[in-house]
Backbone:
């Protein structure tokens, strides 16, 4: 059992190193990010304590996946398995418990602790496969998968647009476009297996162009109802709508070229930092897009010609 | 034709392939056999240009990989992608127009279900269907029979025969000698990164006997199983 936790610790260390973070920086950084996000949540909403509790419990749900639990069951006896599951779940909610204690929100400590223990008894069957229809089946895969994973966001964004029109709040409508765009950017967050790149009978340049064209076409499709609605009801803000939408395309292009700039590895930390900086100061995109593009071409040339 | 000359591959200090010289002709089926770790998959990855190597691999095509259908032992299938979308993705990759997909579903796969929910054999059948639809000229089939049901295996053997008739070049690796004996024209035995024996169809029995002697020897007797 000790060996199992030592192994988990080693895996976490390796993930941090692979992410480009030396351990001496990685762990303190994780702590700082956790505290920063916690402080932010509590500073933004009076319902923070409930959101925080929900976040804590959601974070342990992943540990209840059937595959990993079946695996643990096969290598440990029942008593060891129970101890491992409870230590894992409680270990994961422990930082949340500490922060709630610091905030003197003692009332929620019980639901978190009990919830974590109850979840340790549950196994989620990830083999539940109801095929969600998608309009993006002709050009798999980013939007096809992404739509199925985050399909609830799209009705929410359309509802926000409806609200924006109802309460005459243009910014809310722009937020809805931003929301859909940010969600679609996450579709490109993980690199695909090299086989999917290798299979293409295209040059690296043509491959990237095809990815960008497909991305823009599908993003436009998702944003179109909002763009039309805002253009009709906020006609005087047409220029802002067009410019914001163009900016969304630019970020989509950035994320696509950034994804392949470090392929087949996941996007590294310096690249992520650059993208975050570009959100704060968009003009630097003029420099980083060509740089990512050149790197992506170099990486893709290994797989396709 | 695929021509391999003085192919060598190292992973760090470990030499995985040593001075391989071989050619694979059109309309022929070649079996590559060898123990786990003998270098079969590395050889396939080199042919597919997925690895850097010393030596040369040339073919009749400008870029061999654009005419190559690759079936891995464990095809990697993304989550939240249906069987149909997987086929569509691979057809798009080679600019092949896809129509009447149901007619091409020769293994009767549930194409509207997520491919990641398929069993091992179904995944292999799906990946094979996709590379067939790509209309490739050369095929590398790494363990095509492994995990596939008996009906599926019969179908795969027939498909290989059909591809051969059509003049395709096919390389197969398998640990099931009988399937290789049925399908191959020539078998190459790979040992510690080099071809130690190459035999034509007439001598397959001899190869099987030699492999048995080499693999088993007196190891079972030494186990002293009672």
Residues:
């Amino acid at each position: 059992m000790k060996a199992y936790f030592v192994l988990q610790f080693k895996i976490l260390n390796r993930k941090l190193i692979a992410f480009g973070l030396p351990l001496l920086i990685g762990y303190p950084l994780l702590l700082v990010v956790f505290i920063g996000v916690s402080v932010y949540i509590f500073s933004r909403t009076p319902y923070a304590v409930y959101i925080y509790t929900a976040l804590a419990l959601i974070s342990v749900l992943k540990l209840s996946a059937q595959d990993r639990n079946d695996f643990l069951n096969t290598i440990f006896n029942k008593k060891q398995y129970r101890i491992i599951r409870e230590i894992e779940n409680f270990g994961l909610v422990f930082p949340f418990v500490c922060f709630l204690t610091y905030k003197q929100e003692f009332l929620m400590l019980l639901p978190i602790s009990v919830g974590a223990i109850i979840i340790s008894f549950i196994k989620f069957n990830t083999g539940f496969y109801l095929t969600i229809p998608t309009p993006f089946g002709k050009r798999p895969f980013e939007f096809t998968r992404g739509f199925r994973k985050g399909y609830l966001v799209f009705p929410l964004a359309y509802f926000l647009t409806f609200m924006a029109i109802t309460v005459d709040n243009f910014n809310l409508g722009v937020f809805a476009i931003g929301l859909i765009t940010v969600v679609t950017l996450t579709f490109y967050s993980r690199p695909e297996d090299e086989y999917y790149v290798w299979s293409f009978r295209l040059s690296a340049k043509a491959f990237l162009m095809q990815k960008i064209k497909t991305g823009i076409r599908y993003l436009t499709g998702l944003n179109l109802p909002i763009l039309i609605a805002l253009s009709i009801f906020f006609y005087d803000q047409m220029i802002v709508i067009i410019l914001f939408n163009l900016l969304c395309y630019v970020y989509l292009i950035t994320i696509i070229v950034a994804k392949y700039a470090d392929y087949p590895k996941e996007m590294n930390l310096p690249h992520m930092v650059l993208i975050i900086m570009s959100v704060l100061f968009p003009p630097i995109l003029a420099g980083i897009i060509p740089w990512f593009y050149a790197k992506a071409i170099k990486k893709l040339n290994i797989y396709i010609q | 034709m695929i021509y391999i000359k003085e192919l060598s591959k190292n992973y760090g200090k470990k030499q995985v392939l040593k001075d391989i010289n071989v050619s694979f002709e059109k309309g022929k089926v070649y079996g590559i056999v060898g123990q786990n770790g003998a270098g079969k998959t590395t050889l396939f990855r080199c042919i597919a240009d997925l690895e850097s190597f010393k030596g040369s691999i040339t073919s009749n095509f400008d870029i061999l990989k654009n005419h190559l259908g690759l079936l891995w032992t464990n095809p990697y299938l993304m989550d939240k992608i249906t069987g149909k979308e997987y086929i569509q993705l691979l057809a798009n990759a080679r600019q092949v127009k896809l129509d009447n997909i149901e007619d091409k579903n020769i293994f009767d796969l549930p194409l509207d279900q997520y491919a990641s929910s398929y069993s091992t054999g179904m995944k292999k059948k799906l990946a094979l269907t996709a590379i067939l639809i790509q209309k490739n000229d050369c095929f590398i089939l790494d363990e095509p029979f492994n995990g596939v049901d008996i009906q599926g295996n019969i179908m795969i053997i027939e498909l290989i025969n059909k591809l051969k008739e059509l003049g395709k070049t096919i390389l197969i690796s398998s640990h099931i000698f009988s399937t290789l004996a049925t399908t191959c024209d020539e078998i190459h035995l790979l040992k510690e990164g080099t071809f130690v024996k190459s035999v034509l169809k007439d001598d397959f029995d001899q190869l099987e006997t030699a492999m048995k002697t080499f693999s088993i020897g007196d190891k079972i007797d030494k186990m002293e199983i009672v």
